[in-house]
Amino acid sequence: MDLDKLLYLQGVGNGFTDCNGVYHETPTSEREYLLRTMCYEQLAQVSAADYPQWVASRIDELDAQPWTKLLRPLQWADVEHPVVTFQVPAQFSGKLTLTLSAEQQAPIVLTFDVQAAHVSGDYFTRGQSYLERKLSLAPLLAAIDEASPSMGYHQLNLAYADDASSAEQGVLLLAPAQVYGADLARIAPQKRPWGVSLQVFSLWNAAANDAIPTAFGDFAALADTIKILAAQGADFLLLNPLHALPLHEPEAASPYSPYDRRRLHCLYISPSLSAEGQNPLWHELLPKRMPKADKGDWWVDYTQAAHYKAAELKAMFKVFDSYPADHPRRLAFTEFLDVEGAALQHYAIQQAAEAKTPWLKNSEFYCYLQFVAEEQLAQCQQLASDSGMAIGLIRDLAVGAVGSGVEVSQETEQFCTRASIGAPPDPFAPQGQNWGLTPLDPIGLKQHNFQHFIEMLRCNMRHCGALRIDHFMGLFRLWWWPIAESGQPQPAGAYIYYPFELMMAILRLESHRAACMVIGEDLGIVPPEIKAPMTDAGIYSNELFYFCSDGYRYPQYAGFKAPHDYKSHALMMLANHDVPTMAAWWQGQDLLKRHELNLLSQQELQQAQIEREQQRQGVLHWLKDMAGWAESDTTLDAILPAWAKTVASGNSQLYSIALADLLAEVDAINIPGTSSEYPNWRRRYSVPVSQFAAKNLFVDVLTAVRSVRNTHN
After folding, report:
1. pLDDT grade, residue 205 (50/70/90)?
2. Angle between helices 328-354 and 363-386 in degrees, nearest 10
3. Closest by alpha carbon to 437, among 300, 266, 243?
4. Which of 184, 397, 543, 654 has the most CB atoms within 10 Å of its CB?
5. Which InterPro entries does the annotation name (predicted)?
6. What is the mean pLDDT of the chain?
């Protein structure tokens, strides 16, 4: 029984190097448990006695059988050097006929001698040797005065020239060498783009009575924010994931635990931006007793907010439902349904089935909400472009989806529903991290020609200038935790590896099709195998000031690097949603909060406070040497403009600062390692959107940043 070979074919890793550079070998027993997790349904009918035979059969399915086929279902090549890869018996020396049906072009038939394709591999199975050959298309096409196909997905039909019945079909993906926007000078030739990161749900504007509203931030508040930041010279807004969350569970608030990454969260819809909400009939159809909108506070009550928004959305749908069949809005909606197809219908049907209120059990209602949400997000991106932003919105793609959601239930064969994504044990989390997200299955992806991955990218590259991919390492490998059986302890996890090269080719192609830049969040343990491919593909890395340190070279600055040492092809962030706000960090409030939440013992708190003071002094020394800082006032209001400006002056081509820091917020939007202990993803900003520009710190910091970013270095 060649178990090691099957574990390799399934992508089950045999070990990893931790954050301290220590290698940990994964025992075979733990790897085999992951194998059984991945193949749970197949193995359910296999006895212990038949297990060795199953292993052999699975190896044959994954490794040997593809060699007996003329074409693999999906292959990729560089668009500048298009080649078709195929397999034939080693003794075959005749001709083959290839029909190439390039996108939006008439089919081209090419008959060629097999010797025209060079040998690139070999395999022996079932008493037969097979050769893998690569056929360069350019010479053959040039010989018949045909141009090489452009980037895209092209249909292939290959057969032995004397046997048409031997024909097999496949897809040739021709990908560009780099993602869209890799050459930033073409997008922003006169400056180095900068922007602001924010949580859309945290935005708000004062109600008529100047109270904090019940509903959380929506696309109207985002549009107002775009106008304000565009006036300040910003080039982009980096948003939290906008993925659909379960509407029947409004307290499931984390944007990184999505119900379906292909859909938008309906509660971001603003009636004021929709044709239906602007219709006088909408006001008449609102319930006579609307949920109160004047009892909000700094923390979003999602149940109350969802109840309030649902009443508005219901009235919008009633207006829409009153339109005749030939109304322009009806026609546009029908076209939207045709484009979105079965995936949208599945989402709507499942969301309707899970609704707890009878009037919400209408699947067309959820289709309509997606129609409006997509429309409003498009309006926001168009507004950003019209306002002069070089990039506009940057969307965020979560690393996985919750197992109970539509995305997983619709595409079960492309997910492993008996495992969860997380991270291995380390000094900061001795038990490891379990994020409660269902991973894509690498074998399932291959067997379905990566259709879900492609669809997910397309949906998230809409209506934006760039896409940030959270935990970019997940395209290469993900840590899986098998879901424990009831009453049993948590089984050990391991890294599962993915078809990285093919997924990167898809990413590069889809990026160009959507005219969407790509930022790969590569913080944490980054496998060395992905660094060069990211750079070569023009994908922007992600730097964070807190972690951009080198204690050996810069001990006098508590390790904080000089700005000229920042990565060039990267997005430098002063802070993000997983670290303390600048105000909390500078004042040490984050340490006190972690102690209050029992995340730090008293002894750990004291040690952390000593280290934090050393870091503060390092920052002050850093500011003195890097920016000529010589002020005696060391409050955050005094130093943040110089701090933000100095980081912004660094080597990174993209730069962002968090809106929370521009407003001197102390409360974190999210504290990693907590769930019910802290109200994550619920904090409103302390200032309404309309008053952002009235804050001295907001204006001072952005003025300082603009002074060093709006001239091309």
Report:
1. confident
2. 120
3. 243
4. 654
5. GH (IPR017853), Glyco_hydro_77 (IPR003385)
6. 93
User: Could you tell me the two tokens for 241?
Assistant: 């994931």
DSSP string, 53-108: HHHHHHHIIIIIGGGGSSS-SEEEEETTS-EEEEEEETT--SEEEEEEE-TTS--E
Rg of the chain over all Cα atoms, to the nearest angstrom: 28
Q: Where are the domains of the chain?
A: 3-65, 80-175, 266-358
Distance CA 629, CA 614 (A): 18
Q: Are 509 and 180 in contact (CB under 8 A)?
A: no
Can you tell me whether residue 469 is helix, strand or coil?
A: strand
If you search the block for the tokens 């962002």, which residue do you land on? 656
pLDDT of residue 711: 63
Distance CA 78, CA 85 (A): 12
Burial of 598 (0-12, 13-18, 19+ CB in 10 A): exposed
Confidence grade of residue 208 (pLDDT, cut at 50, 70, 90): low
Q: In Å, what is the CA distance from 691 to each residue of 216, 217, 393, 545, 609?
A: 17, 15, 21, 28, 34
Element (H, E) at 660: helix 659-662
Whether 294 has a pLDDT exceeding 60, the answer reads: no
CA distance linking residue 351 with residue 361, whole number of Å: 8
Backbone angles phi, psi at 137, to 5 degrees: -80, -35
DSSP state of 147: P
Strands 654-658 and 152-160: unpaired
Quickly count: other Cβ atoms within 10 Å of residue 609's Cβ: 15
**Quick one: tokens of 71?**
């074409």
Assess contact for 543 and 572: CB atoms under 8 A: yes
d(CA 563, CA 277): 48
For 168, phi and psi rounded to 5 degrees?
-130, 150
Give the class (CATH, top level) of 80-175.
mainly beta
Q: Is the full-model pTM beyond 0.90?
A: yes
* Model pLDDT for residues 87-122, shown as the tens digit of each residue: 999 999 999 999 999 988 889 999 999 999 999 999
The 10s digit of each residue's pLDDT in 221-230 is 999 999 999 9
- Could you tell me the two tokens for 376? 């409003």
